[in-house]
Amino acid sequence: MAWVYLVIAGVFEVVWAIGMKQSDGFSRFWPSVVTIVFMLASFALLAMAMKQLPVGTAYAIWTGIGAAGAAIVGMMFLGESRDVLRILCVCLIVGGVVGLKLLAKPAA
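^ Guanidinium exporter, sequence as received from the core. Prediction below:
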């Protein structure tokens, strides 16, 4: 179940990162509310995942999902650059996340 919590926490990180962008520096009410709610939920799920997963693995995967996901959403929906090097960098992040998952051992 820890891996499910971690993946959902990572997806929620993408939501709050995009929400933060849409909040325009927390000057728009509803995007600010979405950002705060998803941020708290993301942290809570990460904490639950860390009960069973090593901190380094859990945190790196959480941030990797968030970073790659936010970059992909930015490219697809927010008009951010889609040049080859950016896409390659996102692929490297995804590769690192997959590698950490494959090498993970339960926390001591």
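The longest helix spans residues 55-77.
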